[in-house]
């Protein structure tokens, strides 16, 4: 039976990765279909919310070139759209000097040690001895997450992409003796694509297992964005206009923050972990009290004069991480009978959003050309992101998230 339509590239999942991939492929002149299981801009996946950090300070040297490529692509998309989604800022890294991954992050992010009390008087209370406080100027920034996803979807449509929401893909079928794949939805619709890009976030393991029988070790976690009330009189000091940075506090608990911006009078300070979850059966309450208590404890120790903890976080938003064992991305061809016809972008392990436009162009070039030329030119090393690294023992566990 003939499928309903044929496209050069079919992208599954309209989070930040799928939306960027659809835009990148359509910008190349490819005919593109972007299929999303839920409503566009829903709150059930990983890309929803008001803000995401962008930062260059990464313990693993493989990421800063991808962040730099992404920054160029964020700027270019903003220019095409005619509005901004990225507010630049400094980035502050805090942690014990004995933490090798912190020192590597500072080095890779071009950070320099500063006296935080001179720079942000009275805000932080960091021990004098054995602690590092390092700033990379313009090495941080805040992305308006939902607006950014909507921007890439709108740009993709402006380049001719077809976007369909409330369309769940249940099968990807290799057509015997033919090039390309057939994508089947839960309503029985069929679409043919020369290539298919799979960016289904926390659902990746389930879909890839049912489609290809491949076990990808990608574990969804139930996560929270927590907004805290700034103490009266200090609201302006913690804003991006006043020069307050995005920051990461390494050690236990690992917390991270964006300056007060999207909700005036509040600051987002998150705990970088959460309980495992099944994306189709979420218990929305699990881990909530634990995350709030850990961040409150951190605030009492490190920012006691500026942020209220007595009533807990005043806004909580749920979201999912998709963790790989080494916290590194999966960007690879599916292989097997699908060869290079299906490309997977997944396992973004709580730190992918900032690199969305770079991942999108990489996935689209892999699909269309069989290789990621733009990434190679930008010095981005993709070798580590291959699926076959899970065949041995996964290694490395540096803090990378957010
Ligand atoms: C609380 C929180 C804070 C974070 N902070 C940061 C940060 O500061 N900086 C940063 O860089 N990153 C951060 N991240 C990580 C970042 O948001 C994610 O890495 C990124 O959003 C992953 O995007 P995605 O497109 O892979 O997944 P998603 O956004 O989940 O998109 C996948 C889409 O696929 C759809 N889908 C699933 N199955 C199907 C199907 N069968 N058919 C069709 N569609 C399907 C889903 O509905 C979903 O819309 C954070 C994440 C969370 C949860």
From TrEMBL:
Any one GO MF annotation of this record: sarcosine oxidase activity
Keywords: FAD, Flavoprotein, Oxidoreductase
FAD dependent oxidoreductase domain ranges (all copies): 8-366
Cofactor(s) required, per the database record: FAD
PROSITE patterns registered for this protein in UniProt: PROKAR_LIPOPROTEIN
This protein's record includes keyword Flavoprotein: yes
PANTHER family in the cross-refs: OS01G0316100 PROTEIN, PEROXISOMAL SARCOSINE OXIDASE
Family: Belongs to the MSOX/MTOX family.
Protein name: FAD dependent oxidoreductase domain-containing protein
Organism: Lolium multiflorum (Italian ryegrass)
